[in-house]
Amino acid sequence: MRPLLPTLLLATLTLAQSPTSQTPKVEIITSPSSGYTYHGCYNETTNLPDTAGVRALGEGAVLVAPGNMTVETCWAFCKSGAGDSKGGTGGRFKFAGLEYARECWCAQSISSLSQKVADGECNLPCEGNTTQACGGNLKITVYQAGAAAARVQRAAGLIAAGAMVFTLV
């Protein structure tokens, strides 16, 4: 008969090394009534050489909501124009972007230094709704407002369904 302790330790070690969970799936969502449509995943530009810390969505407004950020929260903030250059709620920002699971960035343009990257690089779940994609580490999930928001963009790796819900795998 085998000693029980070494067998239990071996079983525990085997389970600890086995992949028991897959990478969580997050969704890129678009709601026609929000006025914003998914525009893509972009790199943040603050760490690029010789950029003086310019952000991908700079000269706008930012909302940081640890534990509470959702895509809808960001859309509402950017749609209100909160913190616009006039210091009020003068109108909606053209771009809304989510980064690092808790940050919402609003701007009228995307920096020319920022480049579109694979959608799968924006894979951090929002802290307020872990099924939604909220950018990544130095990656920003960007939504665009206005007439361009009426177009549905096709992207590799995304599956459109119903009210335009995209799932990153």
From TrEMBL:
Subcellular location: Membrane
Main location: membrane
PROSITE patterns on file: WSC
Signal peptide range: 1-16
One GO location term (cellular component): plasma membrane
InterPro entries registered for this protein in UniProt: Kremen_rcpt, WSC_carb-bd
Topology in the lipid bilayer: Single-pass membrane protein
Superkingdom of the source species: Eukaryota
Keywords: Glycoprotein, Membrane, Signal, Transmembrane, Transmembrane helix
Pfam families: WSC (PF01822)
Domain (WSC) ranges: 35-146
Keyword Transmembrane helix attached: yes
Name by which UniProt lists this protein: Fungistatic metabolite
Biological source species: Staphylotrichum tortipilum
